[in-house]
Amino acid sequence: MIPKDVLKKIRRIQITTSRMVSDVFAGQYQSTFKGKGMEFDEVRQYQPGDEIRSIDWNVTARMNHPYIKKFVEERELTVMILLDMSASCFFGTVKQLKVQLAAEICSLLALSATRNNDKVGFIAFTDKVEKFIPPRKGPRHVLRVVREALYFNPGGTGTDINAALEFLNRVTARKTVAFIISDFYSQEYKRMLAVTNKRHDCIAVTITDPREIELPAVGLITLEDPESKKSFFVDSSDISVRRDYADAAQKRLRQRLMLFRSVNVDSIDIRTDIPYGMSLYKFFRARERRMR
Fold first, then answer.
1. Global pTM?
2. Diameter over CA atoms, the chain
3. pLDDT score recorded for residue 287
């Protein structure tokens, strides 16, 4: 039995994301994530201009007239959402925690997929795989995905993207569209991401809080790594400290983007202080244009 306050929160998320699916992403999802495979549709007589390679020689021999095989693009997709629920995602200095924002994006993607009659699967991970929901269709199934994204209580604190990707490759037999929603504070994962992207269509959705990029000048503060629990004092009133902090953050973001590009993985940058709708919309539009 789901508590009333939990149902209320889930309903609010559904209303918010459903409106965005209808108003902002109408047609964008379908045109962007087309099925990659081709399935047989029918055999018809050859017409001038048809590909000679499409001729069905067995039927042609029987009918004494050239016939071709007609194929149609597979429309049904399997969408896997990999959600980072490590301790570093339970951080936020604006309106919500990174993990809450990630859950909303998870809901938006799941609703977009189910509206297109696609299957949706879910993997929650920390330094291990915490929860797995096999891909299925339908509103009830999506409701379960949304509930787990919002209220699952992970046991681990660290981040292991390799473990999540390895698990995805083990449990999926067919090619999927795999959204990895994370702040990507993980050890070396380039090789596994490259391997996984050859099998699946991987898309990195990065979640960043503004305080991870620059420090405010508020004097002596304590910073703590939520995953290792190590803490240290920082004098944020020192301009050189703030500059070094910002430089290190920008370097990390550049390296992360270069990593994604080096393995041909598309990425969407989401910040907790900027509405995410436009970032997703721009990504869908850019990808759609590239696929034409």
1. 0.80
2. 88
3. 77
